[in-house]
Design goal:
With about 475 residues, the chain is α+β, with helices and mostly antiparallel strands. It has 3 domains: about 70 residues, Nucleic acid-binding proteins (OB fold (Dihydrolipoamide Acetyltransferase, E2P)), CATH 2.40.50.140; about 190 residues, Rossmann fold (3-Layer(aba) Sandwich), CATH 3.40.50; about 150 residues, OB fold (Dihydrolipoamide Acetyltransferase, E2P), CATH 2.40.50. Strands 9-8-7-10-11-12-13 form a 7-stranded mixed sheet. α1 packs parallel to α10. The longest helix has 18 residues.
Length: about 475
């Protein structure tokens, strides 16, 4: 049953049983008329909900838990005071072993939805660390946290804060005083820079008023102790920029690479514009196994490096390449997988859309003294096609690690045309993985599959799939 309390904002829906998880990590309930998607719920619970108005696209209705009538035995007390508020660890209320079980369930559910034939899927390999496992975070500045209620234009109430976007609210910032995602000195840098911003009355970017100068700080760390910081500004105020950068240099000499960027458009990401090195190295170095990698400020690198190494080991085990095998590595990034497989294979060609990442990959092959790989900068869709394959050769193996949305139909067609004996697909989204498998399994069969937990306390899942060419 449900009753209207405030027709403009939400209605109360009582005695709703949560029955499953949606692929986006929300629990699913039904009030007899429609599905309701609930943050921070657990299937099996009976709850009363505050149900929001239908989303603008008309696709779904969300609800938040007002009262738990029947609590799941899987529910635990989150270890972070910001759990349920910030947009980070949306499954921190679930015991870790059960998180892994639910992730396994979501993978099975996605494959079943598209009728993908697959062998028995082994348990999800847990993350080596459950806290302080990330090597990169981006914190956002704001002039006020009033966006959580009503926007307040009273200047005295607008104290600068530094934090994250809450779930589904990309123009609001939640003030963060602790975080268990990244190793020190990440929080120390955040704590000191926000104190400095408050003291110096530096205007932070305000999404509602489209004003201010300071937007975000990105902190990247490596297992070998290097620290990269990138400050994002939305206006070219040289005095303010230099003062902030000098403050960081003076107070955190352990920062090995300090950089900044000035956005041409405030809605852009820090990586969309030129990143200028202020002090230290222009890159960050990370070690993966016996290999050393450089990472430029805008280059993607796997956020959980300890688990990433486990994934690379499985890729090598699945690949079983020899020094006679020719390999294509699509979406090759900084060349981590390419370099990791190189010593076992013949020639490998990596293809990557980001020129910065390609330059990192070329340098990484030089640093590690690897000569049997080459990298091509170009959009995968425009580059990887039958003409390219005819020119460069048909591969024995194709590896791809596409974005969350998966890979495009034409790219899959090119892979099917190339007919390598094996394809290894590295996925960060069970839904797009299953969709891509629907086309690839026309000619290939799934021989092995292994899920990994890359992001503890979230619904996110990484999966490595080995496809082998069907025999006629």
């Amino acid at each position: 049953m449900f009753t209207f309390e405030n027709q403009k904002k939400y209605f109360i829906s009582e005695n709703i049983e949560l029955t499953d998880f949606h692929s986006a990590g929300r629990a699913i309930g039904n009030d007899g008329k429609r599905n309701i998607y609930v943050d921070y719920g657990i299937p099996g619970e009976l709850v009363d909900l505050e149900v929001g108005k239908r989303q603008r696209n008309g696709g779904f209705i969300t609800g938040s838990i007002k009262n738990i009538i029947r609590k799941s035995s899987q529910r635990i007390t989150p270890f972070c005071i910001h759990s349920g508020i910030c947009g980070g660890c949306n499954w921190q209320h679930i015991g870790y072993d059960k998180q892994l079980d639910w992730k396994h369930h979501l993978l099975l559910k996605a494959l079943k939805k598209y009728d993908i034939p697959a062998p028995e899927i082994p348990p999800v390999i847990p993350s080596p660390k459950l806290q302080f496992f990330r090597n990169k975070l981006e914190y956002f500045f704001s002039n006020t946290n009033a966006g959580l209620t009503n926007h307040n234009t009273d200047e005295q109430s607008r104290v600068p804060i530094l934090g994250f976007h809450p779930l589904g609210r990309s123009y609001t910032i939640v003030d963060i005083s602790e975080c268990y995602l990244q190793l020190p000195p990440s929080r120390a840098i955040c704590d000191e820079i926000i104190k400095y911003v408050v003291k110096q009355k530096i205007p932070c970017y305000d999404f509602a008023e489209k004003s201010g100068i300071l937007k975000s700080i990105v902190i990247r760390t490596s297992l070998i102790g290097e620290i990269m910081v990138i400050i994002t500004f939305v206006r070219d105020d040289n005095k303010v920029i230099m003062e902030i950068l000098q403050f960081l240099v003076s107070n955190f000499p352990e920062i090995t690479s300090l950089n900044y960027t000035i956005l041409k458009n405030p809605v852009q990401s820090y990586s969309d514009n030129e990143i200028i090195n202020f002090s230290g190295k222009q890159v960050l170095f990370e070690r993966m196994g016996d290999l050393l990698f450089q990472v430029s400020p805008s280059t993607f690198f796997q956020p959980n490096p300890l688990q990433a190494l486990n994934i690379y080991k499985i890729i090598r085990e699945f690949a079983q390449v020899s020094n006679h095998d020719f390999v294509y590595d699509l979406y090759s990034g900084a060349g981590t997988i390419t370099c990791y497989l190189a010593k076992d294979s013949g020639h490998i060609i990596g293809i990557e859309g980001s020129l910065v990442a390609v330059n990192d990959a070329i340098e990484n092959s030089r640093i590690n003294k690897i000569s049997n790989i080459s990298f091509i900068s170009g959009d995968i869709l425009e580059t990887f096609n039958p003409e390219f394959i005819k020119k460069n050769g048909k591969p024995d193996l194709i590896i791809l690690d596409p974005p969350r949305s998966g890979t495009l139909i034409e790219i899959k067609k090119a892979m099917l045309w190339a007919e390598p004996s094996k394809i290894i697909y590295v996925s960060c989204n069970p839904v797009s993985l299953a969709w891509d498998m629907k086309q690839l399994t026309e000619k290939y069969e799934i021989s092995a599959i292994q899920p990994f937990d890359m992001f503890p306390h979230t619904h996110q899942l990484e999966t490595v799939v080995l496809l082998t060419l069907k025999k006629n």
